[in-house]
């Protein structure tokens, strides 16, 4: 296979977006486009099948909706940080190994910092909890290489809110619009920070859902152009504790 701007055969593509944007569907649609072009492709979905996922998620949303900190925010963010880290290591191993697989990750470790920052800003993570999260995140992110391409699906918070409610997940019923707006703002900071650090960032208008084939072509073009590559890169959540580098999303 091979790509002009990439010495390896495979690719590690991270896809992120706000809650309700349609991220998971986009991952599979883009994967289908890559497979149709002859590339072995795997999607790493969010760890929703983990036996502890629903427990932590419900605690997180309970704290969000009651505007109280019972530890749900910190527990969920630490759980997801550990899951993302393991997924990230596996994605690098498979994408940059000898078999030339394209690995698409449904929200990378970096996107989770958006949710942690927002939880801290809204008061359901304490400053002490957030500082601990940042320390663990920094240590983990230093240990992994960033993806070849970071794809951000840009959808307005208002549209995400409508999509979120239309899919009818009970745990999301009480999620307020201003929470999605806050996540959106923090995502913009994250994208700026990633670009500043030399990551290939592809922002896609996902208000109309596609077309995935064109997104796949843009990913190939971005990689082949070798516009910004790096030998080593690590993200720090913030230069100063409790200062977000850029905020968060979900599918």
Write the layout of secondary structure elements.
Elements: E1 11-17, H1 23-36, E2 41-44, H2 53-66, H3 72-95, E3 102-106, H4 109-122, H5 127-142, E4 149-154, H6 157-166, H7 177-196, E5 201-205, H8 212-224
Parallel strand pairs: 1-3, 1-4, 2-3, 4-5
EC number: 2.7.1.113
Enzyme class: transferase
InterPro entries: Deoxyribonucleoside_kinase (IPR050566), DNK_dom (IPR031314), P-loop_NTPase (IPR027417)
Describe this entry's structure for a reader.
The protein is of the alpha/beta class and 251 residues long. It has one domain (11-224): P-loop containing nucleotide triphosphate hydrolases (Rossmann fold, 3-Layer(aba) Sandwich), CATH 3.40.50.300. The chain is built from eight helices and five strands, in the order βαβααβααβααβα. The protein has helices at 23-36, 53-66, 72-95, 109-122, 127-142, 157-166, 177-196, 212-224; strands at residues 11-17, 41-44, 102-106, 149-154, 201-205. Strands 2-3-1-4-5 form a five-stranded parallel β-sheet, with helices on both faces. Helix 2 crosses helix 3 and helix 4 packs antiparallel against helix 5 (127-142). It is globular. It starts with 10 loop residues before the first strand and ends in a 27-residue tail after the last helix. Residues 227-251 have low confidence and may be disordered.
